[in-house]
């Protein structure tokens, strides 16, 4: 299938108002599309189905599923993207002074609660609305692809729910058979060749790592924690620690234990979740929720480096789940884009700097809009 044909299918599905998702996993050059054949809203209760899930921040709300059994699946290998798109890349501040004041007040409120020991860390966010000149989501998706090779890039649409696009650097959970990998991601600075991380960022990221380890411990047979490294996400850098091991419980238990992690919610989890739901000035909806492939059967070849050449002929079918945290994302409504941005607040946070961090994060999406 040609690149043109693939995107024509997506544009047509959008035109006739049927649900779909098109996406590319980090560092790969394959775009997949799941095109639902009807406009029903399917939900996943226990993450046992096969398909693509789109789940909100508030886990009391439904997880939407595009089921494989009611969809057509298309795969596009080595698409010609970079030669097809131009990225406008004009920086532009679009926040209002009211929005700035509201965010600074919100961060100050959190700092008071941290001082009183109500919680240790909370992630606070806001929504910024901008007008689009390019309103075709498929074009915006291609611009995201061309710019963010290390991200999970997607465009998700359901006529009864809405249209979301994003390029997220954060994996919630990857599972192949019973092997899993996840990551602790936190701390932000603008890209530089030789980054230096301050105590605020390393401590904030360590809180996330410790939470993930503690939450997974009862559900795993083995667990290993990698070194903490710098991850580039477009013009930003974050601290990341990879965590992997073998699961001994079902997927829904693990996802429930992890989501929402303190990378997007806070510590302790329930108290900060309530603080967010009560005090943020808007509804997060699917921002900081999770999304991705659920229980997809893939044909895994044996490791070609193995000595026993005869065995190389064997394939095994494995069930694969790849879930990402919905960050650096936007929701499109007609000619507007709603950008969602936030950051972690700890005792050392400065409200003005925290606001600036959300402005910098919004540039990830603005790069493909203006
Ligand atoms: C909340 C966001 O990002 C999260 C918060 C970070 C931070 O506080 O430094 C860094 C990466 C993400 O875990 C966002 O991008 O909106």
Automatic annotation (TrEMBL):
Gene3D superfamilies named among the record's database cross-references: Anthranilate synthase (3.60.120.10)
Signal sequence bounds: none
A family per Pfam: Chorismate_bind
Domain Chorismate-utilising enzyme C-terminal: 101-361
Top-level taxon in the UniProt lineage: Bacteria
PANTHER family for the chain: ISOCHORISMATE SYNTHASE ENTC
Name listed for the protein in its UniProt record: Isochorismate synthase
UniProt organism field: Aurantibacter aestuarii
């Amino acid at each position: 299938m040609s690149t043109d044909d693939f995107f024509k299918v997506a544009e047509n599905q959008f035109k006739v108002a049927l649900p779909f998702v098109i996406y590319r996993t980090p560092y790969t050059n394959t775009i997949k599309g799941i095109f639902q054949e009807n406009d029903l809203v399917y939900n996943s209760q226990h993450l046992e189905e096969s398909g693509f899930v789109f789940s909100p921040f508030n886990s009391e709300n439904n997880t939407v599923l595009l089921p494989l059994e009611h969809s057509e699946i298309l795969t596009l290998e080595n698409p010609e993207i970079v030669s097809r798109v131009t990225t406008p890349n004009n920086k532009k501040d679009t926040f209002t002074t009211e929005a700035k004041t509201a965010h600074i007040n919100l961060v100050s409120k959190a700092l008071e609660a941290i001082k009183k020991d109500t919680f240790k860390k909370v992630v606070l966010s806001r929504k910024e609305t901008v007008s689009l000149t390019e309103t075709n989501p498929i074009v915006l998706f291609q611009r995201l692809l061309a710019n963010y090779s290390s991200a999970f890039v997607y465009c998700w649409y359901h006529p009864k729910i809405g249209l979301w696009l994003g390029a997220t650097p954060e994996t919630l959970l990857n599972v192949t058979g019973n092997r899993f990998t996840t990551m602790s991601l936190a701390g932000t600075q603008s890209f530089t060749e030789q980054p230096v991380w301050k105590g605020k960022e390393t401590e904030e990221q360590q809180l996330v790592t410790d939470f993930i380890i503690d939450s997974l411990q009862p559900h795993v047979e083995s667990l290993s924690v990698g070194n903490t490294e710098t991850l580039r996400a477009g013009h930003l850098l974050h601290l990341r620690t990879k965590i992997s091991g073998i699961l001994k419980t079902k997927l829904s238990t693990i996802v429930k234990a992890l989501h929402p992690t303190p990378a997007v919610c806070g510590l302790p989890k329930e108290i900060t979740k309530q603080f967010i739901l009560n005090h943020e000035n808007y509804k997060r909806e699917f921002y900081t929720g999770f999304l991705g492939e659920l229980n997809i059967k893939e044909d895994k070849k044996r490791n070609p480096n193995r000595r026993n050449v005869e065995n190389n002929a064997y394939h095994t079918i494995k069930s694969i789940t790849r879930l990402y945290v919905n960050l650096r994302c936007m929701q499109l409504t007609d000619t507007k884009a709603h950008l969602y941005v936030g950051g972690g607040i700890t005792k050392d946070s400065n409200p003005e700097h925290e606001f600036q961090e959300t402005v910098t994060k919004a540039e990830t999406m603005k790069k493909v809009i203006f």
